[in-house]
Amino acid sequence: MIIFISGGVRSGKSSLAEQCAKKIAEAGDSLHYIATAVRTDEEMEARIIHHQQQRKYDRWQTWEQPYDLDQIIPIFSNRHIVLLDCLTNLWANELFRDERWHIEEKAPRIVQQIKKLGDQAKACIVVSNEIFYDGIPHEQGTYAYMRGLGLLHQHIVSFSDVAMLMRYGLPIVKKGRWPCGAE
Amino acid sequence: MHFVSGGAFQGKRKWVNAYYSLTHTPHVWHCAYEQPFSFPNGHEHATIVVLEGIEQWIREYFFPYTTREKEAIMSYMYAWERWEKEGRRTVIWIGCDISQGIVPIDAHERAWRDVVGWTYQQLARICNRVDYIWCGMHEQIK
After folding, report:
1. Neighbour order of strands in the sheet with B48-52
2. For chain A, what is the domain count?
3. What is the pLDDT of residues A111-166, one digit of tens each?
């Protein structure tokens, strides 16, 4: 199962995603958190600590994987609920890892990885950001980044069971059923 | 007329192509990112016309976005509306939503954003259908 959650900055995406994961988890299931942030500055460090502390009291296991999801995919099975937070970091890390910025090669690879995660785990929850409402950027790197992220969003939503847009802490269900695709 | 909007890179073009089956339906596609929009005359034999990149078209041809330019934008849109009514025709407008970012410091950028929002409101009013695309999915808002 794949659940896609997107929204603006500080809209409550991460906490909705965590709530969602706990709701899906049954006795014996474990919760896994794929952290994608690279520690770059103090603000980022503080943000990471904030998220870590929020998860501390629950039974989350954290995997720091800023890129190459392939390396950890084999770990997961249908007793695992996987939360990927967030796609925007992962995409930036992958796209700008080398000088090539090759969208056509890199975006489909991530799409396949997420599909695989969704097939293998009980549920894969993907968190991303809405950054598409400021026009088309002129700067080449930003253009490549946004176009690629837009493509990722479209592809992931096309095979997601649930797609939600978060606004001010309120989930707007765009596809499937909330909570978490329960029939 | 049909107005299709949504954020950048959300699949607006793809959706219009699929919705109107354009791969096997004759149509004329004008893209403001590549060439200026053209006028309805010369489209006597067309039945579907797509005008993509409204915000870009405005940016290039309607500076400094005063009342005079707004009137020109309006009369251009009405010309296409008349063209549509002359036969069994459809005009599809595609415009990128640029209204939800940070208010730009630069006065020109701000004025552009403003006139684009104004134009979209006019379009939404005169079109009989409006769709908003998010992640390739459409939501009919009119």
Report:
1. B28-31, B48-52, B90-96, B2-6, B129-134, B137-140
2. 1
3. 999 999 999 999 999 999 999 998 999 999 999 999 999 999 999 999 999 999 99
Q: Is the interface score ipTM higher than 0.85?
A: no
CATH topology (fold) of B22-140: Rossmann fold (3.40.50)
CB atoms closer than 10 angstroms to residue A120? 16
pTM for the model stands at 0.88
Domain extent at residue A140 = 2-175
Residue A69 lies in a domain: yes
Domain borders along chain B are 22-140
| Contacting residues for A153 by C-beta, under 8 A, at least 6 apart | A4, A6, A128, B10, B135, B136
**Chain A within 8 Å of B34 (Cβ-Cβ)?**
no
Contacts of B137 in chain A (CB under 8 A): 157, 163, 174-175
Average pLDDT, chain B: 96
Asked if the C-beta of B135 comes within 8 angstroms of chain A's C-beta atoms, the answer is: yes
The CATH number of residue A108's host domain is 3.40.50.300
Q: What amino acid positions of A are annotated as catalytic residues?
A: 51
CB contact under 8 A, B10 and A165: no
What tokens does A8 get? 């603006």
Annotated binding-site residue? A115: no
Q: Do A133 and B11 touch (CB under 8 A)?
A: no
Residue A183 belongs to a domain: no
